[in-house]
């Protein structure tokens, strides 16, 4: 099966009927479903559930590929969260990274058969989309509840993965403990804890080409641990690239008596912008190099977030 990128003669009304006839939607209120007719015959519906009666809302993305087939991507998530469980919510940056992943899938074979690791995956949306074409996807995070919810989302979408559900792994990876994570001594799945790593999985990830992360830049200490982990991952095995989507957040600073994006300035110290590379004259440089991706070139398939100036997407490598 492959994603179909051709224009098709399907009227929005027909599509709406098709969606309504799907049993999962029938159980829910479909009266005010916003939906999008995207130029590449990709259809995405975001279904809003009654947030008062459901502790976790489900966002459904209906993706149509091929003439008659329709896949829904169901993401169970919270609509609000506090700092310890931010990973239960879908953040705008994840939606933007999802748009980038969809666009790349539709326009290139860059992610085909890839091994991918997502850091701070939260609900797992981005990695779940990628598993449509990738060989193996690792969704990593911390905290039992977040990993459990991510795991549920992986299962909810099990029909969609190119290589089946066993090709998508939810694993614990705490940046404060860097890389590699502690290995469970045995590769026998029955003897391992649910989110622990086996040696063969660590080896597979070290051969990955793609790392992903969305909305992981919000505390200077965490940013440091994050880049430490990414650096260690990039030191091992194949040459990897990190696609990182972030939101620039502004706070009032008493020191500067101004509204500033200090977290963002701290983040920018970890790598050099490709554009400034030639003007460094051999001065001390960070060990990463980055290029900002022009998101205006990426169609917005998912309408449920606004792409303000503060959302950025970076492609980051390590100097070798
Ligand atoms: C703002 S959420 C973003 C979640 C998801 N990527 C998204 O954009 O919807 C930040 C994520 O980083 C994870 N995180 C925070 N501290 C971490 C750490 N020390 N190691 C690994 N993940 C961490 C959180 O659990 C959470 O899932």
From TrEMBL:
Residue ranges annotated as transmembrane are 30-47
Q: Which GO terms describe its molecular function?
A: protein methyltransferase activity
- The reply to whether Membrane figures as a keyword in the UniProt entry is yes
Assigned keywords, A-Z: Membrane, Transmembrane, Transmembrane helix
Spell out the SUPFAM superfamilies in the cross-references.
S-adenosyl-L-methionine-dependent methyltransferases (SSF53335)
Q: What Gene Ontology terms describe where this protein resides (cellular component)?
A: nucleus
Q: Mind telling me what this protein is named? A: Methyltransferase-like protein 22
**The species this protein was found in:** Amborella trichopoda
